[in-house]
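Figure 2 data, in text form.
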Amino acid sequence: MATTADDLIRLVRGFNPKTDAALIAKAFAYGEQMHEGQFRHSGEPYFSHPVAVAAILAEQQLDDATIITALLHDTIEDTPASYAQVETLFGHEVAELVDGVTKLTNLQLNSTQTKQAENFRKLFMAMSKDLRVILVKLADRLHNMRTIKAMRPEKQAQKARETMDIFAPLAGRMGMQWMREELEDLAFRVLNSDGRASIIRRFITLQKETGDVIERITFDMRKELAAGDVEAEVLGRAKKPYSIWRKMEEKEQSFSRLSDIYGFRVITNSEEDCYRALGAIHRRWRAVPGRFKDYISQPKTNGYRSIHTTVSGRDGKRVEVQIRTRQMHDVAETGVAAHWSYRDGVRSKNPFAVDPVKWIAQLTEQFDGEDDHQSFLEAVKLEMYTDKVFCFTPKGEVIKLPRGATPIDFAYAIHTRIGSACVGAKIDGLRVPLWTRVKNGQSVEIITAEAQTPQATWLDIATTGKAKTAIRRSLREVGRGRFIKLGRELARSAFEQVGKTSTEKVLDTAARNLRLKNRDHLLEQLGSAEVTGREVVNSVYPELAEVSGDVVDRKRAVIGLEPGQSFDRASCCDPLPGERIVGITFRGRGVTLHAIDCNRLSVYEDQPERWLDLRWHDGSHPAVYGVTLDMTIGNDPGVLGRICTLIGEAEANIADLKFLERKPDFYRLLVRAELRDAAHLHALVMTLDADSDVAEISRHRDPGQSAYPQTDAEAAP
């Protein structure tokens, strides 16, 4: 590791003989002078940290401006140095980079959700200006994590969690997999030192029992490749402790049952040799089904190209193999940073290096449509923290999606127009519900209809940031007029409940107090359930809104119905006020309300014209909505009476009671209680669960029941 200016310059000259050594030496001297008298928690001179960060970036063969920025990245924040001074001495490019790193350092990314979301947006804005800002910040975090033991335990935990949640996934998203793995492992050492030590101990035991597996398999692979006349370099390694721990968690397996804990890389001279090497390996070892990915024919957005396969040997041990060319390997090691890397004094002309401007534009395009910070944070995290699955269009085109994605995500990945017009999907030729999770290798066909528009329920089905953003945007555009009209009615009702009138002036005042653009924006937000009627009233008449106790009339408890349209609750899910609902229309019988997560909704998946987007009215509802509780209670004198008393004291009425089991020591029974809303249910369950004679209690739902037991053919509108 470099400790002097000469050491650092020697390191840089190793890959860039034409480096501006004088400017690097000048930056080194300036940074050392500015940080004089400052010390790290370990007692070392503070400037040792910027030097270490510069050395990390030099190892990635980055340009002079990035390395000089590393030397100066803390000067504007922590020393008398100013932006103007740095610009005068080292130029505009370096000054902008140092200023960008300073602003990132001041972002508290582990703070409250709202603040964190705002800061995530700022982080992406900084990335969009110059991605090298993030490269310096990642190297800064890496060195801090390598030296974290000098910090207080609580500070270590905070930094480790921030690293695991934000910086490690960000490094992975940029293609810097080596950095992601090291950051994760360093954070794992802090957050779960016992778990990490356990993995290492088991590795040592395994090596004693089996010998050097890596050396043996590496030798066998080289032999097979040579026999196939494929010239290639073979590198083997054991996976990092955190990677193994994560596999154990995901697969719910013990260490002894894990097989793919070793990874091997085959580096060839040409793309053709990659496929020849794959053939040689598959001839010698048995390929594991479902574990093959071809990132050469379908590269990742950050430029990553490689063939991934998992093979199984005679002893049953699985090993992962990555096959790539030397140029592909260089990009795989440095990711998007490969754009700035140098070789022999010139910018590397790697054909697989991604243009960072295009990459960041593609990454942020889908987030720009998010109006609120929370939606932006959700979209960013969805894209950063998920693994990928690969499925096919009917024409054979490959679509990359996050694990857990649905046909809705698939449709929007093809085109926003396809997503918005989606009415159904087929997977491998079979019709499936839209909430089905797609799997690797499946063929997905999207069924569309011209009159279809995105439904609000899709937000609970979609998993990708792109789909969620497009759905929200479409709902806002298509439903804006409807939401304003509905919002006006909700405002009128809300103000009438406190004896006031929702005049234009009152609505203008409410919009101003709630920091919304104008009156229409307020009504739109109200109609789309972004704000509640109570919040609007409270913004103008806080004292009246607080004391208002009017009970919502059951006949107008649901918003979104046509005038005179009746409703009933489906007995399969018993939706309560406060829970998200959808309506299913029945000819001559009005509308049946279902909870958004009701399994019975799958019956109506291919009848989208019958679905209604509904919501419960804000306010206090009467205790008339029945919910069934499944309870197991002790069989002792007085227990049942006390349970009934507790239900009564909770202002709930018992409508029915049915015994399922009677044992010498316990009863199991179903209690039908009439409640106000979901909050009332939660309070009742908490009260009963706290009783020492209640062994178990849960909400009972029967998907086999329906509000209307007739067949679907009879019930069709």
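Caption note: The two ends are 75 Å apart (CA to CA).
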